[in-house]
## 1
Amino acid sequence: MAGSVLEIKNLHVSIEDKEILKGVDLTIKGGEFHAVMGPNGTGKSTLASAIMGHPLYEITEGSITFNGEDVLEMEVDERARAGLFLAMQYPSEISGVTTSDFLRSAINARREEGDEIPLMQFIKELDEALDYLEIDKGMATRYLNEGFSGGEKKRNEILQLMLLRPEIAILDEIDSGLDIDALKVVSKGINKLRDENFGTLIITHYQRLLNYITPDYVHVMMQGRVVKSGGPELAQRLEAEGYEWIKEELGIEDETVENA
Amino acid sequence: MTVETKLSFDKAYIEQFSKDRNEPEWMLNFRLDAIEQAEKLEMPKPDKTTIRNWNFTDFNHEFKTGEAVSSVKDLPEELRVFFDEDKAPENLIIQRNHSVAYASLSEDLKEKGVIFVDLLTAIREHGDLVQKYFMTEDGVSVNEHKLTALHAALVNGGVFLYVPQNVQIETPIQTIFWQEDPDITLINHVLVVVDKNSSITYVENNLSHNAETETVANIITEVHALDGAKVAYGAVDNFAAATTTYVNRRGIAGRDATIDWALGQMNDGNTISENVTRLVGDNSTSQAKAVSVGRGNQTQNFTSVMHHDGKASDGFILQRGVMREASTAIFNAIGKIEHGGTKANSEQESRVLMLSEKARGDANPILLIDEDDVTAGHAASVGRVDPIQMYYLKSRGLTDDEAQRLLIHGFLDPVVSQLPIDSVKQQLKHVIERKIN
């Protein structure tokens, strides 16, 4: 079977009784790279958090399925073990737990008891990924995200992505706060995963990330909905012309959710 | 349970006990004087914990020997985990019940004049040294309260460690206090004297198996670090649920001396624990780090004190507690700077993590300062597991239990990682694992 399918239908999501997503439809298949773009405050990160099961977000309507299974019925960890991954915009700092210990636990969580990853194999894979992402080896023994710079946190998210090998990954503003060199390295890591079994949903409001990771599909979100979809050329037009033309085309005055 | 105020040990009993141990007269008199005081003295009053109904005074004091072991390989599995595989510690005493089951001290240390023997032997063979430091006004006094006096009168185990001047010892010195029989009582005294400019690492374990048979442990440690001495003191306490424990570990640091504590306080029963460091000498320093995991219905009270007398002394208290189920614990941290202790620095941090609705924990920071030219600081927090951290960990596939496990280990790591011997560190992790599963 070539690739998994994440299917989002008519998704409505609220936070503290305020509706943020107002009917999102999106299907991501293995092998496909999707980009979701849009100005700030239009619901992009809410979509990412809702897919993963963030405790503060409430799904009020619609469905998310993964290979036909109801994702909304799954616990957060079940979603992860099923093959979903979210690279977070603001990863938690976990004091006292080293990046290395955490990664090994996360890898083993996907394996059967008694079939834990051999230590040497783990170290080899970790070292290779650290090298590939040009991360200082010392990060492995530092407490997870504690005292990391913004760029280090993003690289660490991609490190986790590379080692955990999910089927569908959602990358929530993985480019924010990165300088151009870091952006190139992070993109290199994501591109390395590209094959027919790996699909991704890249959330960004800058086109520049898409200079390094070419999406197959580009979607624009406004007012808590996907208002326009297209190919890579759509991202380029957004870069050149901004979002105004879409607003005009659709008769939208304020694109954010707040005042919608 | 009602507790009788009348003690069940009289002078005749103590005379016989002392005679059976062939003790010198000074020790007999010391015991007799102590039992007299024990009758009159009050119980200790740990801050914010009521111990009125705890039994510390009615117990079986019978002296029970344990079988000797010829090699650490003959020990049961739960004791073998204290050691590195295939490498028996060079300097080790195992006390099984009340007698020594195993003892070794390297030739090198013997030649350097190091004394490391069980306390009852030390009282007979090194009387002058023991008498000079054992429960004096400088350390833990007999008359502090009923339990210190009772301890002095009835002490029935422990070790004596003496390091002469200018001896640097890198190999750790290790003791295991193994209460094999459920119904006996450990009244152990650990007396550590490190003479001028010497340094050691000492680690001990306390272990019992009496999940149901009720008994008492009354443990006192005195560490004398003379001028310029450095002592790293590690401990993993693991008394079973039916032991009511009083444990008092005290350090006295001379000029330029250092005493660092790393305590894994993993008892399953009710516990009062005091860890007091007296920074007597100028420029003396101490770090007192302690962790605890509470479970079941146990109630515990931890008091960690830095007492600054000397000038420019530096003390740091770090306490971490995880409270599960219906357990309760109070963490008192006291930094006391006496008049004259100029340039002293007293810092403390106590943090409590509560894992259930019924668990109760409190951190109680206290600074008592009688000098102007000093620095001091405190941090304290009591909280629950952060749901956003849980979400993050679970989003990588960790189950609820695994994520919580990682967070607990992480929370305790600042202390656990400080334990001076790797095998003991692993053993503490092991005990923590058992207490959180």
## 2
Amino acid sequence: MEKIETSYDYKPEFTQLNLGPTHPATHGIFQNILTMDGEIIVNAEQTVGYIHRAFEKIAEKRPYYQVTPLTDRLNYCSSPINNMGWHMTVEKLLGVETPKRVDYMRIIIMELARIADHLICNSVIGVDVGALTGFTYVFQWREKIYDIYEEICGARLTTNIGRIGGLERDFSPACLKKIKEFIAEFPAALIEFTNLLERNRIFMDRTIGAGPISVDRALAYGFTGPNLRAAGLDYDVRVMNPYSSYQDFDFVIPIGTQGDTYDRFMVRQQEMWESLKIVKQAFENLPEGKFFADVPDFFLPPKEEVYHNMEALIFHFKIVMGEADVPVGEVYHAVEGGNGELGYYLVSDGGRAAYRLHFRRPCFIYYQAYPEMIKGSTLSDAIVTMSSMNVIAGELDA
Amino acid sequence: MSTISNGYILNEISEQFPDSVIDSLESYGMLSIEVKANDIIAILSFLKTHPQIQMNFLTDVCGIHYPDQIGKELGVVYHLHSFTNNVRLRLKCFVPSEKPEIHTITSVFEAANWQERETFDFYGIEFVGHPNLTRILNVDEMDYFPLRKEYPLEDQTRTDKDDSYFGR
């Protein structure tokens, strides 16, 4: 047989592909410079910091109560959790005991925020695999949560909800009605959303095995929150270091086994049910009492008292001018944020503002694992991996 | 679940590294130990592999600047968490601002990679041996370290704002 001469000689040829900074599928501003061999990702190089706003520096100049709006802008899908985390950090520094009612009100708000956060994340995974319906559908339910925020604090996205020591006002009858309606009506909507995606063959084929990470690697990379739990470790700050009376509630921590996109999706789905359970328990057992703790140095007195009562006027002035005394010390306080352990490391030198405030942003820490998770996979898998990690640009860049 | 006390951790570290522990303080339930910067890798590996303590999770790394502490101006603060014992621990190392060098801990905890880059970015602390010590959140062209205390937040050339009116 004659040997056929061939001049074809395979040499791998790599293509550079810029995924981002402004790419519709990255849901935020971050860049990945991908080295591609055909459709396979060989390497990824990340650039972050596009919306860095120097919050840590700003916080060193502002009185404590003015830091709350900064925390709104970290994970803006669940701002109330960030706000509450910050209030609790300052309360820990001051040694404030909050009444049970405050704790329960906070828990209702925080768990609603968690539902809103997970709704966005999970429905966006659907969008990235081509299922827009779920996204448009659950957005109405996020709207309803935002309506509840609006009843509580007047704002919707960047909420600045609550104050150091409690909440700015008690739940209004309209707010209680809305929460009640939400508890009653949301399960049907979540079931519908579940039916759209959870056992959907196309969705499962697209997400199972996409962007997996083992529990050891996840721990090494500092994963927390749903992403770590999807890999199989049941670490949840709400259970490990209960804050705000979480120990009073009955809920389970859902975990996955594979750490892939589908597991992350499923963990978030289950967490929404658990959050709803917590909201329901807190709502039904909402204790009577004050909606603020006794910290006149930080909690603004009622406005009508300010006009007629000398003491209230003095405290009002002191708070607004940021003249309140704080102890010297350093605290670390962590809350279970929308996507992991959101920590505040606060160093106080007794001055009006923090000497140093560091945000432990879960996104920033686990996003560094992204190249390892997508190497060897296709571009389309890389997209769903990113959306399932719930990387929020505001939190990533602080 | 077993729990170990902060005193036990401090004892274990002091026994193993008698010259390294400079100061310790327990505040708000968390033990905070100041150790010599040179020993940080050894201490972290010891804590991570210790059969009882098992500090297996690096929560956070961040910098801090005390311009008045001569010779110990810049600090690196490590927050550790032992999941098995549910104990948190804070370690601090200080380095002089003339030679702000400390060994990277990426060999012990990979999560430190970006956090050390962030610390370098804002405080200029050089992490010796770090795989990719470049700026992360600020622009590459930046030639100063913005979170150091010598860079005040507000524009100091402004004359229309008198600090004394604002209680500063």
